[in-house]
Design goal:
Layout (H helix, E strand, L loop, with lengths): L1 H11 L1 H15 L7 E9 L2 E4 L2 E4 L5 E6 L9 E6 L5 H10 L2 E6 L8 H14 L8 E5 L2 H19 L3 H10 L2 E6 L12 E8 L10 E7 L13 H22 L9 E7 L7 H11 L10 E7 L7 E6 L8 H13 L6 E6 L13 H6 L4 E5 L21 H20 L15 H11 L15 H13 L1 E8 L8 E3 L4 E9 L2 H23 L1 H13 L6
Amino acid sequence: MWLEEAEELFKGYLPYYVLIVLPIFIIISPANPVLASHEFPVYRMQHFDLHGVAHGSRSAAVNLEARSLTGWSTSRHCVIVKLQDLTIDHFRNIRAKAGALLVVLPNDLSGLNSDEKQHLLLLEQAMLAQEISVPVYFAIWTGELETIVDEVSQNVATNDLSKSAAEAMFSSVAANGYQFVVSPGTTNVKQDVKVATIQGHLSGYSQEGKIPTLAVVAHYDSFGVAPNLSFGADSNGSGVVILLELARLFSNLYSDPKTRGKYNLVFLLTGGGKINYQGSKKWLEDQLDSLDGSIIQDASFVMCLDTLASGDSLYMHVSKPPKDGSPASLFFKELKAAADQFPTTTVDGVHKKINLADDILAWEHERYSIRRLPAFTLSTLKSHRELTRGTILDTRKNLNVEKLNQNTKVIAEALANFVYNTSLSEIFGGSLDVDKSYLEAWINYLTSQPRATQLLSNKDNALVTFLKDNFNKYLRDVKVSYAVPDKRDPDFLFYDVTKGVVNVYGVKPAIFDLVLTFAIILYLGTVYLFVQKFPALYSTACSLTSSKPKQN
């Protein structure tokens, strides 16, 4: 009786149960294709145009399988690699053939040794040397990300160590893979770009007629391989901090008619310094090409401040050596005299002609020298080619506040001795002295946020507003002007995707799906044949049972 009921069950309902229930068990089983999901913030590589030349990564969207540095092979793979393992040759190969690149950075870049820092500097230079078609992102190390990197690398190592083709096949089926998805949307040209330049001045006093002008200039933006990782502590946070301290010190002197200097002092915080000094270019055009009077037309000299906390040596970079007796020459002598107060500090001059054939100017003073204004740049770097001028390594932890404080004192004393035409060894002292805590507070604020030019190019940027408010405390006639790219022939263009989120899905490799498909087909085929042939199997079982001799 029960055999007949079983026969009816297999013939009538079991195939339907198999077709419905089996997929449910597959979905909820441990062999689920999606094993895990993670989210990590990622920072996109630079993407901008300058003078019609494309720079950085041109793509942003990623939906690819993750592979290690040694395990990837096609454009269907996103290469994930630790910073220390990525070489320039690896990068060039990935740029040409892979689908995307994700570089995992240490969570503390200041902890890198000197060789690792030099490696990163050279790698950044190579990555920014030319346009890149594939998406490139950077992520900060976390424990979960470390696990993913190690597992992706381990899958390749396991396959390589297999002793036979069968073992290699089993390893491929059993391995866990990862799918990287970044969906930032379309990278469009950023609209309403306004690169701000802030100006303010202190009026001098003289009974001799026309009062000459001195200008102090520093650009406030930073640069690195990724905009959202560019904090620019030394380049050019140090220049901005020194300018702000000079404005505070001289505003105290100029507030008293008895101590007002014989020079007008113009202070200028320029935007777009890292994109060929666009802020200075636009400001000079407004000043010198307009019909209104210019506050800088007859400047005795323009002093630009750039990267002033990386060493004890101060270099005065000029495009043309100043003549003996000229204001710039006299200031250089005052600078050397002020440096003598500190045994470790040296002052030297560096002469470099402006190469008009170059698309990118070396130093900011060249913008002013081109317009026939006497100008120079003070820096602790001897060459404009130093890679530390544009790197994500330039963080607060890597900045030496003691050197910043010392160089501020040297520059302040030299400028004061020049303005007041005195040889006093120390004008600033006591209550009127360089305030180290003021310098430190400003550098902490400036490095609390990335200052890449494209991040500061909106009209009501909070940093620009704060700098303007500080100018208003100490200076007069504070104004903000804007450099805006021309719509027909823009000098620069920015794009609106600088960061995103990568969704990491744990998945089985494609070969696992193939093997699972064959297993399901084999299983269903076996069940189908069993149901179809059940009467024959039942008859065979009955005949075998009935043929057994009865035992007494």
